[in-house]
Amino acid sequence: MLLNFVALVFGLIVLVISADKFVVGTVSIAKKFGISPLLIGLTIVGLGTSAPEILVSAIASFQGNTGLAVGNALGSNVANIGLILGVTALISPLAFKSALLKRELPILMLISLICFFMAFDGLSFIDGILMLLMLFSFLIWLIRTAKREQHKKAMDDPLEQELLDEMPKDVSEKKAWLFFVVGLVGLLLSSRLLVWAAVNIAESFGVSDLVIGLTIVALGTSLPELAASISSVLKKEDDLAVGNVIGSNIYNLLAVYSLPGLIAPGPVAETVITRDFPVLLGFTGVLFILGYGLSKSGLINRWEGAGLLLAYCGYQWVIYQSVV
């Protein structure tokens, strides 16, 4: 048992470090090809920070542990809103100044509802294909938006300047490719180790792999977003902190939640439909309301951040009570 926990912790640490190197390498390579900072930030960085969830869910699905894959996707989204935005808003209130982020919020809400309804009759291969088509459609929309902003030749949206400030600088082409390869290999190996340890722990405690995916694994794979959001808010880059979460949640649903359907189609646990997805929709709905303004237009204050964090802790307590 001790070996499993050591492997889990080691796998999470390597996963987080590898994800960071992978993103730095990928972004630096994209810059060498002259891709705009806004396009890099909206697409490459978003997909890169979701790489841990993608690989963990892919490996779990190939091994037949679809509960772990589903739990990882949904649990990460709940953690992104409840834990990450909650903690970040406690450090400093988050203001939504970017018009682009406000355009993404309805998209996230719509995607969440569609994925929820897909779960009622299980995840089929067709469902997985539909989610991938939605992902490609979303990426096309992002690319067109970035090009439209680039043609303006002016940084009208605060998010673009924040993305530009955060781009890695002075990374040689050789080092960029080294980071890319090392990060990718690290992600693959640590994901494999993480899934192995998580499944063993679930079996040892007699709990489902869904529970492990919703809790330990989801929290671990969300650590890159947590680090990125805290770093952004300390630099007064509120839109980047919120953008990391919104983008990651969209990618988690379309690129991660689709994997069980594509690789190992089958029914979804009843608790996912009656407990976990409604919780996710609730958190997403609250984010939607806060983004468009509740007490003040587009602001998450410290009290609201504390509420998000308490709600996340309450959800984890409900999961814990369901297995003891």
Briefly, what is this?
82% of the residues lie in helices and 1% in strands. It has 324 residues and is mainly α.
What does this structure look like?
The chain has 14 helices and 2 strands, in the order ααααβαααααααααβα. It has one domain: NCX, central ion-binding region (A middle domain of Talin 1). The chain has a two-stranded antiparallel ribbon with strand order 1-2. The longest helix has 33 residues. With 324 residues, it is mostly helical. The two termini are 19 Å apart.
Mean pLDDT: 82
How many E-type strands? 2
Basic shape:
globular
Query: CATH H level: which superfamily?
Result: NCX, central ion-binding region
The CATH architecture assignment turns out to be Up-down Bundle
CATH topology: A middle domain of Talin 1
* Measured distance between first and last alpha carbons: 19 Å
Helix content: over 70%
The biggest sheet amounts to: 2 strands, antiparallel
The SS-based structural class is mainly alpha
Layout of helices and strands, plus pairs?
Blueprint: H1 2-32, H2 37-49, H3 51-62, H4 66-91, E1 94-95, H5 99-118, H6 125-152, H7 158-166, H8 173-205, H9 209-221, H10 223-234, H11 238-256, H12 258-263, H13 270-292, E2 299-300, H14 302-323
Antiparallel strand pairs: 1-2
Task: Label this structure with key terms.
324 residues, mainly alpha, 14 helices, A middle domain of Talin 1, 2 strands
